[in-house]
């Protein structure tokens, strides 16, 4: 589904990704772990098309198409979703208006009809019930007045409403207490299917206790330096990144 080959990227004059190669298959949940400054969030921003991140070499394809040639909105319409490490607030735009507008914009780019109000509200009720978000919260501006945990639950809610093909989740467990971690994990697990894929960027094993990955990659020095099963994450939790080649 996602194929990255020898990807190099920089911010300003600083090269951060230095020949990263990675493959994520449909139906797979892949985790990326690594020390601070390794390039994990840079990878997420590059794939999503964030301004200021320059790709200098390599390629990234999504379902066979050149992902890097697409504008950010076209990447979203193709099925790529980015869950932010630090979700932003958008005052004056309610969650529900934001999501319905985003969903219909994506459907339009794909040549699909707009979602009906009844179908949209059905999705809203189903996803909000799982994630513990009440309708009053969803009528607020996007993330406005939300705690850190509520913002991450709202990201999982957006994932459930938009139903993308590929979820790229950048430290979605950051700032979550035990209960919020369990709730957000339930939202991610509901998203799993043979037709979709998830790339989880995380520092900690605790998220992977709830969202069982199929494969774990270690990113260090701008490259994937080791790949293994769930036991690799347990070893990193116990031993840290000392001895991991950069």
UniProtKB/TrEMBL annotation:
It holds the Pfam family ABC_tran. The keyword Chloroplast does not apply. Keywords: ATP-binding, Nucleotide-binding. Residues 2-246 form the ABC transporter domain. CDD domains: ABC_FeS_Assembly. Signal peptide: none annotated. One of its GO terms (molecular function) is ATP binding. Coiled coil: none annotated. Belongs to the ABC transporter superfamily. Ycf16 family. This is Fe-S cluster assembly ATPase SufC.
